[in-house]
Design brief:
Blueprint: H1 4-7, H2 11-32, H3 34-41, H4 64-73, E1 88-93, E2 103-107, H5 108-125, E3 133-136, H6 147-156, E4 159-162, H7 168-177, E5 182-185, H8 187-199, H9 204-207, E6 212-215, H10 224-234, E7 237-243, E8 250-254, E9 261-263, E10 268-273, E11 286-293, E12 304-313, E13 325-326, E14 332-333, E15 338-340, E16 343-345, H11 347-354, E17 360-368, E18 378-383, H12 390-407, E19 413-416, E20 432-434
Helix pairs in contact: 2-3, 5-6, 7-8, 8-10
Length: 436
Amino acid sequence: MYRPEIETASRDFMQHLQLELFRNQLKHVYNNSMMYRRKYDAVGLKPEDIKTFDDIKKVPFTTKDDLRISQEENPPFGDVLCVPREEGVRVFQTSGTTGKPVKVLFTFRDWFSVGCEHVAYQANVFEINKSDIAFLPFGYGLFIAWWGWHAGLERMGVTVVPGGAQSSQDRIRNIIAWEATVVLGTPTYILHLGDVARDMGVNLNSDSRVRLVVLAGEPGAQIPSTRAIVEETWGAKCYDAIGASEMPVSFGFECLHKKGTHLIESMFLPEVVEPDGEGYVEPGEQGELVMTNLCMETMPLIRYRLRDLVSLTYEKCECGRTFARMNGGVLGRVDDMINYAGVNIYPSAIENVVRSVKAFSSEFQIVVPKQGSSEKLTIKVEPASENVSPHGLGKAIQDIKETVKLNIGITPEIEISKIGSLPRYELKARRTIRKE
């Protein structure tokens, strides 16, 4: 553990710590951010009104639209900032998968102290140390992606190989040449690198020294079939981490017992509420994750609706940690939920089915028909190789249909695409296509 006295603290201690940090953060944003002052004045809320842990629910939620409007009206960073822009040393923006990207600014303290502290919690649980060589295969652009891990690992004294501006083939060569022991990426891209290595005649299991693969950006490591493919392909342990560009940097990790994703409660306050509602859901029930960043000074988010669907437990983990855990990690996105034939479907459920069928590659697309049409929901898949026989494909199609019907409650159409024709993604994949 990175900080055992914090990670194993009692629930009473943790709530007392979170309340004090929350009250300080509320004063900070009210006094220094015009956006927050307007928001709270509009409902007659003052920081001193929050006296107990239960009072926190009086504070209005913050949404991505709040940030977008603030930045559109006061470009480039909006009046959400709590520090002068000149104090910022690092900028990023959200991926823009659900609308116009939001710009994010960090002070030196937020980036090199607080953000690196987030990574330290995660890196310690994965037993990453100075003997490791970490390879980060991503584009090093404005999307925060693995920038935080790069800075955090360097701070810990871990050797980092920046894998930007390279083809996937060159990344495979460099993972081997630099004798990388840790590789970090999105589930989609890590699986793609596995396919590329196979096409190059490289066996990552035996030809590389990789012992650990850390996944984030998508709910992949917590999906059994996806994790199994990664571990088999790379011959390495695979674990889940979680973060968000605007939150930021990283706020959760999977422990070695793989019993859910722990949230760093000493630095964040997690809540779970009704999707698109305001009431809390009970522990163990599914709802929308709301997070407060308790330590950042630049543009901290208070009761921020992440749009992630989770199920939270406060039971002590086998590892000894008392940090709240997300059962199964991120279960899906509120925005990604598909309503078809009266059934609510999450793409992660279909992912688990597709990736458990070895006749197909790990890539897929979901085509959702226009509401009211007579078309069926279609899952596009690719054969795993040219060697899969027509009989094998037919059986695999039937397996998917029967498993989806049994576990999800619908009977989809299965469409076979040419090998390599479905899109590949380095960062977050966009696999759901909705017909208008």
